[in-house]
Amino acid sequence: MAGKVALFGASGVIGQSVANALKAQGRAYRVVGRSRASLEAQFGADPLAEVVTWNPDDPASVRAAARGVDTLIYMVGVNYWQFHLHPTLMRKTLDGAIAEGVKHFVHIGSVYPYGPPRTTPVRDDHPREPHTYKGRMRKEQEDLLLAAHAAGTLQATVLRLPDFYGPGVEASFLHRAFVAAASGKRAQLIGPIDALHEFIYVPDVGPIVTALMDTPRAYGRSWNLAGPGATSQRQMVDEMYRQTGRPTKLMTMGKGMLRLLGLFDPFMRELVEMHYLLTTPVLMDDTELRALLGEVRKTPYAEGIRQTLAFTKQHLAAVSRAPAATGRPHPVP
User: Fold this and answer.
1) What single-letter DSSP state applies at residue 265?
2) Are 109 and 78 a contacting pair, CB within 8 Å?
3) Closest alpha carbon to 93 in 69, 68, 70, 72
4) In the chain, which residues fall in CATH 3.90.25?
5) Quick one: which of 77, 112, 71, 141 has its CA closest to 271?
6) Using 50, 70 and 90 to split pLDDT, how confident is the model at 280?
7) Range 166-198+229-281+299-320 classified under CATH 3.30.390
8) In angstroms, rounded to a whole number, what is the distance separating the alpha carbons of residues 176 and 43?
9) CATH 3.40.50.720 domain position(s) in the chain
10) Which helix H or strand E contains 33, and what residues bound it?
11) What is the phi/psi pair of residue 283, to 5°?
């Protein structure tokens, strides 16, 4: 079992899931982020959590955040239109981690570095051939980490996630559909919506990450985490409305509309490049991960939708009773 664990980029939804898993195991952990106020709001009530702020542009700050850490779980995010920062932030974090003697480094990755799938499903050893800028930046980020492992400076592993959803997860293709279904409105989706797709329920991720980091054989390579089965956006939205007792109401936007909206919205502009993920199914094979860990629990879609709808309804009710707020973030796939 790993010693001190630090969650870099802890305030995102994956970080919260990993923190919940560590808390359930009674294990102390460090949460690292730029904003102390945000970290205190999320983790301040947990006596197992140590709150540390960092400035990745300051090497001394990075080293201080990594000091005394055995395992670093890396979930540092960037704006969707700033993917050029991914390799830079990885390099700065690695430099600090290596200088402080961090032994294990777990990177939470995505399917972006694979590029268009050669096979369905995609195995762990599928070539990384990104044809998009974002995919190349993600691959470069991974290459830096795997090179550090090959050099023997630390042990590294990558866990690749599909798209995700869950209670409070706004960074999802499905977030606005959950809000629409819960409030009886029309869901807006980015089409096509009938292509096969997979999603992982975010609360399931944390226990998988902690199991992976505690397994010595996990290091030195990457691992796929698949969803609980192939589905589609339409099937997911149909189930949302079925559970609310309402008929499905939806509208879709195609690639052309994304380009038009991108003239005014940087998120939509950047999403055009990744539209292939909605037309070419990238379904992952996680046979090797399941063989490694023995058990990989995945919440069935219907149950995940039930829990996410319940949370969304409670959240909408709370918002309706609170003063109006502005500045909602864009959903990011």
Assistant:
1) -
2) no
3) 72
4) 166-198+229-281+299-320
5) 112
6) very high
7) no
8) 26
9) 5-163+202-224
10) strand 29-33
11) -100, 130
How many CB atoms within 10 Å of residue 54?
22
Fold of 5-163+202-224: Rossmann fold (3.40.50)
Residue appearing with tokens 């664990």? 5
Q: State which H helix or E strand residue 155 sits in.
A: strand 155-160
Phi-psi region of 101 (alpha: psi -120 to 50; beta: other; left: phi over 0): left
**Reduced to 3 states, what is the DSSP secondary structure of residue 207?**
helix
Helix (H) or strand (E) holding 156: strand 155-160
DSSP 47-109: TTEEEEE--TT-HHHHHHHHTT-SEEEE-----TT-TTHHHHHHHHHHHHHHHTT--EEEEEE
- Name the 3-class secondary structure at 127: coil
pLDDT for res 2 = 60
Asked if 100 contacts 72 with a C-beta cutoff of 8 angstroms, the reply is: no
pLDDT confidence of residue 262: 82
Conformational region of residue 184, where left means phi above 0, alpha means psi within -120 to 50, and beta covers everything else:
left
* 314 contacts: CB under 8 Å, gap ≥ 6: none
Rg (C-alpha) for the chain, rounded Å, is 20
pLDDT digits (tens, 9 = 90+) for 27-64: 999 999 999 999 999 999 999 999 999 999 999 999 99
**pTM for the structure as a whole:** 0.94
**Residue 202 and residue 315: Cα distance in Å, rounded?**
17
Helix, coil or strand: residue 208: helix
